[in-house]
Amino acid sequence: MADIVRGSLTLSVVKKADSLTMRLIAPIPLVAKYSNDSIFDSWTDPKNHREVYVQCLSAISSFPLSVNVMSQRVWKWNGQVIDEKDSRFEFFNYTIGSVQVPALRIKADIMNGINTASFIEFSAKISSGGFEYSMHSNIEVNRESVSPNTYRSYILDQNNRGAVITQSNQTVTLVAILEKGGREVMTGLSYQWSKVTLDSKMDLLNDNVADFRMTIPGATAKTYTVTRDQVDTTAMFQCEIKENGIVVGSAMIEVRDETDPLDILYETNIPFDAVDEEQTLIVTPKVVIMGTSTSAPGTWTYSYQKAKMNGTNIGAKATGAKYNISYEDINSNGSNILLFIEAKN
Length: 345
Hints:
Blueprint: E1 4-12, E2 23-25, E3 31-35, E4 38-39, E5 50-55, E6 57-58, E7 61-64, E8 70-77, E9 80-81, E10 89-96, E11 99-106, E12 118-128, E13 131-145, E14 151-157, E15 164-165, E16 171-180, E17 183-184, E18 189-196, H1 200-203, E19 213-215, E20 223-227, E21 234-243, E22 246-257, E23 262-268, E24 280-289, E25 301-307, E26 313-319, E27 323-326, H2 327-331, E28 336-344
């Protein structure tokens, strides 16, 4: 769709004694659930294996860089290099749309005997634009003491393709998961899917709540299938989950259409994943022809909305050619926030 282009950034503050220049993503939260020393849903069971994949973006494309441009790849668990013969782990390639990226499968209860936050790390040499970069990132693994009323919700791509629409896969089926007391809840639930929009008219099209969410009529099942015409480069979908009529969970996921003719690139004055104290991040978006840095024709206006990682809005919507975010904006909301960007011609 040529008149609207959407995108989002995950903004982070500097992690002291660490430098994050890429993201590690786990489709299922890396939270090991225990009651005393007994684990729920052991990760040794193949259906409970956890996966972590690498998302590395260049400045000239929002397509992730592929495994083919990454050399000297190293995975670590709590600072120790993971050997390919280590039976607790498995190296493989994860597919995001049409791109394969490095990934790690966790096949053991690695949090047994550990009561503090732990980390999976990845580093590599990246070749991009004729230059080579040393890049590194990590992702936290946690142990959680589960009580009978502990809730956790998240959304998965049912077909495990990175929630990307491609020429060969014109739809993405999303599935909402709610866990209670460490177990997935299968009965007594109701669902309502919505789509993030920064258009006030679309926001109020199907309900009277001004929350920058367009309620999707009839989207009240555990699964929801997103079609290509619903995605303008990217689209963020949210599912609110009720148990016996009471809201107990909410989760979001971004769906991307790599066949869209347009894309949004972001120029920033400092790295958007490492905003330090007293710094202000300035984001300057630009609509471009997909796969290039060439500006798309037209007169584009930009809207912005900050949100917490669970989708709760932070402050009011703003418009303009640039957008400023302070360290405190991010740090006061859990050290990571989302920035939704919408461009209209």
